Structure formats: C-alpha cells, structure tokens
Amino acid sequence: MKKYIILLGIMMFIIGAEAQQLVFSIQPEPATVCENASHSFRVETDTTEFNQLPMSYYWFENSGSGWMQLTTGSQYLVNGNMLRIFSIPISYTGNQYRCEVHIGSHVFISQAALLEVNAQHPVSFIYSGQCFGEATHFTNISENADLFKSWHWSFGDAACPDSSVYENASHFYCAPGNYRVELSGVDENGCLASSHQQVEILNVPEPWIEGEEIACSFQRNVKFFSGGNYAAYEWSVAQPENALCAFASGNSYEVLLDCGQTFTPRQLEINLTVTDENGCSASTSRSFLVLTYKSPDKGSLIQKPNDSRMLVCLVGQSENMAYHWAVTVKNQPADTVWKAATTQNFILLDHPVNTELFEYGVEVINTAENNCSSLFYLQTDEKDSDD
After folding, report:
1. pLDDT recorded at residue 119
2. pTM score, two decimals?
3. Cα–Cα distance for residue pair 99/71, rounded to 1 Å
C-alpha cells in the first residue's frame, strides 16, 4: 500500500500586466483510492472578477518523470458571478495530479494532489466438470484470498441465471455452449478485483438404440446396437428378479442377449450409457417384448468347406424354417452390402468370404412358431460358433 497525504492548497501564477485574484481548490478531501480504480478530481473556480473573458482548463499527471498534459483545453466564456465545476476520470497507480485554469492572459496552477493508494490483489480460479448435465465446479485459487471479505460468482448462464457468494462454487448449465464466468472479490480495503474465463460446456450427442421390439423364448442373439460413435458403451437389461435374458456378448457398440423360457409375455428394457472421448456421458433406453413362442436354438453358421463360398446354417430343428441372409460392413451393422432369403439352410455367395471386412449373418425364422427368429453369425475370432 502506498500512503500519501493529499495537499490541497491554492497557488496562483499570474501572467500579464495586472493581476486578478482567482480562488479555486481541488477536491475531494483526503481519501483512499484503489490501485487501477477509476476516480474523479474536481476543480471549483469563482469567476466573478473575470466576466466575459475566455476560460479553459487542463489536467496534468506526474508519474515521476515530469508533468504530462492529459487533456486538451476545454473552452468556456466567463459569464458574471458563476461557480465553475470541472471533473475528469483518471486511473491511478499512485501518481500526482494538478489542474491549470487559463482566463484571458492569466494562468492559475493548483498544487499537486497526492493520494493514498491501496494495492490491488488479483483473483483467479480454475474449474472442472465440463459435461452437460453434470455440475461444473469452480475453485478459487486467489493467492491472497484471506485478504478478501466478500466474493461473487457470475456463471454467464442467461437461460438458467445463477450466481454464488461463496469462495468456491458449482453450477448446472441449462445447455451446452460457451459461457463467460467471472469471479470478483472485495478486499478488506474495499478494493474490487475480478477475473473471467470462457468455459465450454460439452455436449454428448444423445445415443439411440437399434434392435428388437419383439423377442421369443429360447431366442439366441437378441441383438441391439448403438447409433453414434463413442469411446465406451455400458449396457444393462431391466427385468424381473428371475433373470430371463442374459448377455451373450460384452460392452461394445452392439450387445447380444440370450433369452430363456417364459410362460407369459414380458416387457423388458435395454439400457445404454455411452461415454465420449472427453469423458462425458449420456443415456437412453428401449423396451422390447419377450413372447412365449420358441425360437430356433442350438444353431451355428459355418463355411463348408472352409475355403468355399458356401455358408451353411445348422439349427436344432430344421423343419418350417426360413433363412434371411445378410452381409454387412464389419462394425457397421446398418450398412448392408448383400442380402437374400431362402427356404434352404445354405447359400452360395458371389464373392470369397472375407471376415476382416464383412460380417456374415443369417436370421432363422420359425414359420410354425409365430415367426419367432434367431440370429447366427459366421464364426470369427470375436464370436462363438453358436452365436
């Protein structure tokens, strides 16, 4: 803190043959100001003796290297017995200020005013948690936090206006986007300091689930897969205590369920939580119905012989079955490059089998059991032979 004593006096320098007396003073009275704060000086002049003479005033600053003029002259015409008041906003760091008033050929110079200036203590903060739908936490890391007597946070959220007067704060944003967050504090001397940052609230595109609406008892490979591309997937199935469907594959963009026998139709719910590369999550769900009808089971899809273009589907019961064949781009189940339907359990492809690029599957439909079906895939390193 810099301490100065304001010296308010009256000096008069007269240029010209005959002196006229001008009485003026600089205000405010002795006061304390904050470093870099905006403030105003004021000069009052009694111009009774200078009627109809032109008058102008100038402000000067001394930063330690001599006086420097801050303003151009402001012109007035003295009009009888009038008290003139002039003001100018100035930002200080502990400098000296003075004013000159010119009337006709006379120049009147005030004494220098010195102010007591309190140092400004900077404030700063960090934040964590930028995922939409989660709380964003703001931590005050101001070096001299113990010197402040009050705090105020502005989160910049016009849709959900909110603020906080605590040293640390949290906020739930109403929408993804960029927000201007400001922390301000008032210290023990009444000086205000502030700091702001742009905070980006990240959005995870909402996933959706593609898959079955109706499944059948004993159905293998009730398949669901996620729309959208994410870093991680977490699947679960909501069902009664006595588990009806169990996962036949792990957490990836797709999941397979193996559903058991039920004597009454049951509605189950498949749940999915995805996480993107920023660690932000989003969730969705999809309901499906498990019927009492039996689906083909104990099946597998094989290549026979191993180097041929023929695929053969083996199921426990082959009567009353229809076969819907499909070739899709690997890891992109919606991108079908070839499909066919037969009543026979084999198919001859028009291209060599390539399990590195494509996925080969067949839906076996039990036409005698309300068209309940199961899916089977050609065995690769990632799938069991009865999937």
Report:
1. 84
2. 0.60
3. 10
